[in-house]
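ARCHIVE CARD
Drawer: 12
Card no.: 0347
Subject: one protein chain, sequence and derived structure
Cross-reference: see card 0346
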Amino acid sequence: MENASTRSAHLVLGRGWVVLLRGVTAVTFGVIAASWPDVTLTTLVKLFGIYALLHGILSLIAAAGIRGQHGCLLLATEGIVGVWAGVVTLLTSLPSPMALILFIWLWAIGAGILRIAEAVRLRKDIPGDIWLALSGVVTLLFGLMLVSRHSAGVVGLAMWVAAFAVISGAFEMLLGWRLRAAR
């Protein structure tokens, strides 16, 4: 007999392409941020806003696909946090690097905690849950690092953001490949 957890696992497995696309989005954002380390703060804000918005939309698409199932609420919450961070960042004119760090910090702490919770909740149901957990840990650590190294300057901030996005995106791509392979 199939239980709710097993049904959720099948639905999550079918959404591996969304997780893979989230990873590709993160890596692309990271490569762009690393390619332009001397960008203006405005450009870095726009890049982050676009990334957070896309990541949030993809999370909401994945959550819609498993609506009412195990892990859906956490994924939907992560999507809402991402869309919120993207929209607020794109619509707000930020007067200082500290404001940008605040938005990224709020998003990273929220998304990191939610990814870790998703990994714990789905650990027995999906293959590659370690990649989701590692993505959450890296995201959470990135948020905490931003608080402690807030005076890095725009170039330093761009390189930290780029490194985080590439590492986190690689973990999400690995998870996406595992989910797609397990179908």
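Annotation on reverse: The chain is about 85% helix and 0% strand. The chain has one domain: 15-182.
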